[in-house]
Amino acid sequence: MSIFKRLIAAVSVLAVAGTFSLSSVPFSNENVQVSAVVDTDNDDWLHAEGSRLYDMNGNEVWLTGANWFGFNCSENCLHYLWSADIDDCLREIADRGINVIRMPIATELIVSWMEGSPNPVSSVSGNADPAFTINPDFCEADGKTLKNSMEIFDIIMKKLDNYGLKAFIDIHSPHTDNSGHNYNLWYGKAGVTTDVWIDSLVWLADKYKNDDTLLAYDLKNEPHGKGQEGEAAAKWDGSTDENNWAYAATKCADAILDVNPNALILIEGVEQSLSGAMEGDYWGMPDRKENSPYIGAWWGGNFRGAREYPIKPKHGTSQIVYSPHDYGPSVYAQTWFDKDFTEQTLLDDYWYDTWAYINAEDIAPELIGEWGGHMEGDNLKWMLLLRDYMIKNHINHTFWCLNTNSGDTGGLWDGLGFQQGSGTSIDWNEPKYEMFEVSLWQTLESGKYIGLDHQVPLGSNGLSLNEFYSSYANTEGSNLDGGKKANGNPVESDPAVTEPVVTTAKPAETTKATETTTVTTTAKPAETTSKPVETTKETVPAPGDILYGDVNLDGKVDVTDLSVLSISIADRKDLTEEQVVRADLTFNGKVDLPDLATLRQYLSKVIDYIGPKK
């Protein structure tokens, strides 16, 4: 990240903190309401054409995100929320340009939700319970009883939407276990059968079928096992054997698409495939030192079987994304790292025939679900080569990981802490983030991060998808395809509406303290047709009155005022003193996103009055 962009990001973080956390003024514990932009249209679903992903109007998109684990572990919740505020974390994630979060989860946990007895959230020994000090919205009204894991997951999904973020889940293991990823298969632990695995995913997909915050389902993290393990190892072939990952994944994909045909289905690879070294070799036979019957790969990285046996659900392939994992020598010293490797040697020795052919031959999109590691030596060299290859070839990706507690890779975060009165402090691993940031979707010249929501901008330095395709795609383009410019086709939908966000504090004459917000509303259901915005709506003030909402000072309130206000906030363009008075619709002494949301509400007839309280 350049010094200039870092300064802009720092200023943006402060601006958003001032708008939403209100940490610059003291608070008491009484409830007040502020406004937050909420996406209500359920219009952000994606689909595949060839090796690319597109929105509903055919605009190309790029998923560039990171992993945040915890729902797969014994805590049954994202890690660090025992010492960090969820809003503070999501705000920084969005401000840093990450547009999607991959969330590992266990089938066992989803089954507990499906059966109506959600497993509880537990904090790590020695850490404070998050319900009491840091995330009060994870508590029941009594302020003492912690909500269950499903309720907290639902709260997090709503909060993601406030910051223009998207998410997808990954079934990291059948059972709840901090080391569950070591288990080979998608069934066989904690009473999870193949049918239970499918049923639980279908239940979750049905629950979220009208919420495009949860865009996709990664069916199983890293199916693996050595060929000689036979039935205990995941394979990829044309059989109907239970351990045939291709067969199981196709069945599961179809079952999910039955209830939500808009969801993306992410299919990972296996570990080993048959090499064809000798006639008569078969899956489960002992290995040989010479002419091995098996070809190895990273766990979840081997798609050699997909050439002959591609995933083809009855619903078609428009929602299928292949999702390999790839790591460097600091995780394991694979043979392809034995030489002075380059992009070309990696392609020749491993990448191309193992997974890269799928993208290169325009078969399907790919999303590298995990990549990352320590910033040292050959591992850094490998990360730079893979990063640049993904950018050049428009491969989607989610970095492993945000967490500090991944033993073999480290994280984008080095530490998190919460201080009452000042909120969460996140210590980012800046060299690693700077390496990674280059691969985030952003405009080519202005460096604005591009989100996947058509209405809500991605953080404070970001754009909504509509903003990018309306104003940037055909002028400066993005860091894809060498800055190729495109004429976008923005999605016409209801303006984002404003829903109340109940906070746990209001200004008071006490010492400086922080505020934690709690979303307590349900998004307004999408309508079947777009609601027209009046372009000539006029409000004639009485003599001496102020025409609130008339930001461009032309004597009426219409969509052009919305445009002027949006540009002012997004580009930090100064308004005149009179414009500020007319634009400050929440009467907090500044012009910010809640004012924009209020004006949108008024123009779309959600509310019929803007101005001081009557």
Structural descriptors:
globular; alpha/beta; disordered N terminus; 14 helices; 614 residues; 8-stranded parallel beta sheet; 3-stranded antiparallel beta sheet
Q: How would you explain this protein's 3D organization?
A:
- With 614 residues, this protein is an alpha/beta fold.
- It is 27% helix and 15% strand.
- It is built from 14 helices and 22 strands.
- The protein has helices spanning 3-21, 86-95, 107-114, 130-133, 149-162, 194-207, 245-259, 343-360, 377-392, 430-437, 465-472, 559-571, 577-583, 593-603, and strands spanning 26-28, 32-38, 47-49, 52-54, 60-61, 64-67, 100-106, 166-173, 214-218, 264-267, 273-274, 294-295, 320-322, 367-368, 396-399, 413-419, 423-428, 449-450, 462-463, 497-503, 506-512, 517-519.
- Strands 13-10-9-8-7-6-15-14 form an 8-stranded parallel β-sheet.
- A hairpin with a 3-residue loop joins strand 16 (413-419) and strand 17 (423-428).
- Helix 1 runs antiparallel to helix 2 and helix 6 (194-207) runs parallel beside helix 7.
- The chain is globular.
- Residues 1-38, 124-131 and 495-543 have low confidence and may be disordered.
Tell me the number of helical segments per DSSP (H or I, 4 or more residues long): 14
Largest sheet: 8 strands, parallel
| Helix and strand composition category | alpha/beta
Q: What percent of the residues sit in helical stretches (DSSP H or I)?
A: 25-40%
Cα-based radius of gyration, to the nearest Å: 25 Å
How much β-strand is present in the residues? 15-25%
Q: Note poorly predicted spans.
A: 1-38, 124-131, 495-543
Average of pLDDT: 84
Strand line-up of the largest beta sheet: 13-10-9-8-7-6-15-14
Number of strands: 22
